[in-house]
Amino acid sequence: MATNRVKTLEHEIGRDLCRVRGEEGEYRGYQKDILTENFSLRDDAFMGCSRCQGIMREACFSSSGEQFCSCCKSGSEETYPSVSVRNMVLSLKCSCPLLVRGCDWLGNVRDCETHLDTCEYVQETCILGCGVVSLRNKQANHERNVCLQRVEMCEHCGKNLKVCDMFSHFDKCPKMQVTCDLKCGMIMCREDVSRHLEWECSEMVEKCRLGCGVKLTRSELEFHMTDSCVRRVTDCEHCMNRFRFCDLAMHVESCPKLKLTCLLECGKVLCLEDMEQHLEQDCGEMEIRCPFEKYQCKIGLIKRKELNEHPKEIGRAHQI
Fold first, then answer.
1. pTM
2. Rounded to the nearest 5 degrees, what angle is found at the Cα of 139, between the Cα atoms of 133 and 140?
3. Residues 37-48: what's their mean pLDDT?
């Protein structure tokens, strides 16, 4: 990641850390503190800038003989390069200005600026835009593992997102595994929740589809419609025809296949539809008129089972 790194403002001023900073923030001559050899008053008089008080960078002198850095000249002031002084300054021994941060580089002024271009102790602002400033030797780890502006792939849907946006994405990621809001126990992708609630969830409350008006969860509704709904369809145990449960009691009262004992308690069990014929033709307890009444039989009404038990004389009368 260090290669092809876009230079930030902090990176660009890295090579300027060995220079004196002016009142308006501009960089001028070299700092004296970076030198590792004694810099005497004589040296200062010969190589020191009279304007920024640093060591002359790209030394030059004016027509009046004053020596200063080329960057310290004012306006259109006419100056002349001092090549010999420049070479002397560039050959001075120095350390990295970031020695206090742990850099142990030693060299000469000529190479100091080049060293600062790659010094791992220069501070840089994160190039991903989070605003964090850290040492260059820690920046790569920050951008790869720490920065909230780094891009990572959502483990659920595979979409590339900034880490700072990842948690809000999780709240709506269509592929994230979620449990059913109605606590039926099912786990599914968020994008399948609507279909699950509409067609599958056993805890979804619905009206009874048979029209009784009861509202139950789907897990309870199936039992309700088959075993307890008053509008469920069931078989009559007598005729085996199908009726709504709410109509069954009324049907049973007049079901032609309903088994009953004879109304006159003759002991015979028969279907309701056969009761009338039984009473008219078969029941021994049914009172009937003697068929020989027109032949002067005075018995009147007699049970059918007793018809054959007339006294013999009456029987003879029947035979006249």
1. 0.52
2. 155
3. 75
